[in-house]
């Protein structure tokens, strides 16, 4: 669920869930962005883009798994996003390069390699030192598409909410997810087909994507749906989600980032 105005979000939560549960659910909101090509006078946001060459510091090796180079899917300019993210961005990693294993590999090879953590990588780079780095063969290069990052406030999917997160009537609902589905379901922001950074992922597979540990749900970094214009896709209506454990995100350790592909 996404909102252009945080006050509207808090008001909707209170009216639909009651004062206490509404406050608890609203407290789970995260700031994020919708990433779209600039239109109607909007400009590209910093150096954010889909596809194109990577922006890496000199000497940074191109990521690979068992000798197969990964493909660069996006670059996110966190310096340009920092004013909106505020405390949601505890460190300043500069540019984030998002790589994953190309799904166009032969099925048997892709399935074997995609099981490991090295099948995706998020590599930060100092904007002052980063240089355009072309993908080595046989990694695919996608058309460079600058994007505008539109500020939004996002609430978690119902399946991202656990029973201890929100107070609910246990005689009326089988769980917190049931309460959110009933009360908030018609406010679906329809971002499941959108490119999004930070915030929350929009997916009915949320409980597989935002894994929880002792520090809470994983931090959502990037959502990449299939894109025919760019030439990438992950199965039937597939989407790639990049996340990172909350503790690693707070420390700026992007080596712990992971990717999940979900499709119908």
UniProtKB/TrEMBL annotation:
InterPro entries the UniProt entry points to: DUF1963, YwqG-like_sf
Where does the source fall among the domains of life?
Answer: Bacteria
Q: What is this protein called?
A: YwqG family protein
What Pfam families does the entry give? DUF1963 (PF09234)
């Amino acid at each position: 669920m996404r909102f252009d105005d945080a006050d509207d979000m808090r008001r909707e939560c209170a009216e639909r869930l009651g004062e206490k549960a509404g406050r608890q659910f609203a407290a789970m909101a995260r700031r994020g962005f919708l990433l779209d090509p600039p239109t109607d006078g909007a400009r590209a946001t910093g150096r954010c883009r889909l596809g194109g060459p990577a922006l890496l510091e000199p000497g940074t090796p191109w990521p690979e798994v068992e000798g197969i180079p990964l493909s660069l899917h996006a670059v996110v300019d966190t310096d340009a996003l920092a004013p909106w993210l505020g405390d949601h961005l505890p460190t300043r990693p500069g540019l984030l390069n998002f790589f994953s294993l190309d799904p166009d590999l032969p099925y048997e090879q892709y399935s074997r390699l995609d099981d490991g953590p090295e099948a995706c990588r998020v590599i930060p780079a100092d904007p002052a030192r980063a240089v355009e780095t072309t993908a080595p063969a046989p990694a695919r290069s996608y058309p460079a598409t600058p994007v505008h990052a539109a500020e939004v406030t996002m609430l978690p999917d119902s399946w991202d909410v656990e029973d201890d997160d929100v107070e609910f009537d246990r005689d009326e609902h089988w769980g917190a997810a049931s309460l959110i589905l009933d009360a908030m379901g018609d406010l679906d922001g329809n971002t499941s087909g959108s490119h999004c950074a930070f915030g929350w992922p929009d997916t009915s597979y949320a409980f597989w994507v935002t894994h929880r540990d002792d520090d809470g749900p994983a931090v959502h970094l990037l959502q990449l749906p299939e894109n025919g214009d760019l030439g990438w896709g992950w199965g039937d209506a597939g989407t790639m989600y990049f996340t990172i454990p909350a503790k690693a995100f707070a420390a700026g350790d992007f080596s712990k980032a992971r990717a999940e592909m979900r499709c119908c």
